Amino acid sequence: VKKPDPVIEPGATIGILGAGQLGRMLALAGARLGLKSHIYAPDAGEPAFDVAAGGTVAAYEDEAALVRFAEAVDVITYEFENIPAATAAFLAERRPVHPGPLALEKTQDRLIEKRFLNDLDVATAGFAAIDSAEAIAPALTSFSGAGILKTRRFGYDGKGQAMIRDAAKGEAAFASFGKVPAILERIVPFAREISAIGARGRDGSFRAYDICENSHANHILSRTEAPAAIKPATAQRAGEIAKCIADALDYVGVIAVEMFVVVGTKGEELIVNEIAPRVHNSGHWTIDGTATSQFEQHMRAISGWPLGSTERRGRIVMDNLIGDEALRWREILQEEGACLHLYGKSEIRDGRKMGHVTRVYMKETG
Ligand code: AMP
Fold it and tell me: Is the pTM of this model over 0.90?
């Protein structure tokens, strides 16, 4: 029998696995509500440590450190989904872990994730499991000669992915990924990419943000705009898909579902690309664009607190500051109404997310 979650009150400590910018923004949002954060991550010098009351620098396999961490916190969450399943299970025996281990199990592996979605009658790109180089040629033929090879696990920002148009190239890509289990996906001729972001509370309540639209450059999110330029019925369906997934996972916290919008003969169709069991880059606009940011909403959800309003304050554009773009900080500070966020990373590197800037074009109100 599962122990009931403890009552969390201001002054409690939230344990966060991972110390990147998402952990940093979670800790900042928690601090505003009187919650302390304790960050656990293998590398010191990451951005979340600077803004948290407590920190542990240790490997995810270090059981002694995990025990001390669990004892120091009231509830545990994570800012990235590649936490080893064994770590989550070990911690879950000691403190509530939200979202729970089921969410990690279904989202860490692209093959398991796609089967889970299809079982819920949620459409995904066509896919084939690739466990050996020999599996590539027949899969490619069944997808009319083109596909995207993706490692099943540990991919992000386009890493562990390759566009494949002939079997020899596919076999080379498979080898370059280290011959780890992969999938081949059919190429989706999408018109837009959108995210449905919502939160599910400990009591099963669900609140979604308006659907937003994403543009990528070099496989990295570059801009998010809210609302997405899609039909109201499509937006509603996108929110329902996110809720359906969250309900199926008995999920607690913020969930982000990335989808493709395909314009076909039946109008706009939605195809789910990926589930992120956490706060997401495409939800950063909610900090300046709503009363309850995704970060605050996540802290509320895992604490068993009421979820807050997700009402959007206007039309919103969020631009990531990647690599050298962060050098423009002074210019952005001079821009009336631009909301600048810098992640405190000590070193600029190509492709590294250094910060973001949000511009809110307010609705006229009386
Ligand atoms: P992912 O790592 O799965 O989020 O993929 C990164 C990006 O690659 C997506 O945001 C899309 O722009 C593109 N992409 C991924 N999968 C597909 C697909 N099956 N068809 C077309 N584009 C894709």
Answer: yes
